[in-house]
Amino acid sequence: MPQYKYTVAMSCSGCSNAVNRALNKLEGVEKVDIDLEKQLVVVDATVPQEKVLETITKTGKAVTPIA
């Protein structure tokens, strides 16, 4: 299963919770790991990376994929 990593600008647990909720609603997402301190989001999903990126962007956070 593909694993995608992103740097996401999150300043509090409310921010990370918003990203977590949005990703867990996305069909095809199996696992979400968020490290608020490192501003890192790791997603295991069967959906395309673009769809995951779009979902995080919709939360209003600045997001950058990590290659």
UniProtKB/TrEMBL annotation:
This is HMA domain-containing protein. Residues 1-64 form the HMA domain. Belongs to the ATX1 family. InterPro entries: Copper_transport_ATOX1-like, HMA_dom, HMA_dom_sf. GO terms for cellular component: cytosol. One of its GO terms (biological process) is copper ion transport. Keywords: Chaperone, Copper, Copper transport, Ion transport, Metal-binding, Transport. The keyword Chaperone applies. GO terms for molecular function: copper chaperone activity; metal ion binding. PANTHER family: COPPER TRANSPORT PROTEIN ATOX1.
